[in-house]
Structure formats: C-alpha cells, structure tokens
Specification:
50 residues; mainly alpha; 0% strand
Length: 50
C-alpha cells in the first residue's frame, strides 16, 4: 500500500509533463494545418487575380 501511495505522488507530475508534450505536438499540428489552409487560400486568390 505505501508503494502505491508513493507512486500516486510521483505520477501527477509525469502526467503533466506528458500532457504538455502532447499539447505542444497538437498545437504544432494545428498551426501547420492553419498555415496550409492559408497558403491554399492565397494560391486560389492569386489564380483568380491572374
């Protein structure tokens, strides 16, 4: 039982670190998707202009 209690104290920090890493990767994916959409829109507008 004491070992399980100690693990409970250790895990929250590890979980927070893992969540931070996942959030960073997720944010990067969102940024790339948004940038790709913006680039597509710019290409479409340029084609319409020309």
């Amino acid at each position: 039982a004491p070992l399980e209690g100690e693990e409970d104290f250790i895990y929250p920090g590890d979980a927070c670190l893992i969540l931070l890493v996942i959030d960073q990767q997720f944010c990067l994916q969102i940024v790339f998707v948004v940038l790709s959409h913006i680039i597509d829109i710019e290409e479409l507008t340029q084609k319409k202009l020309f």
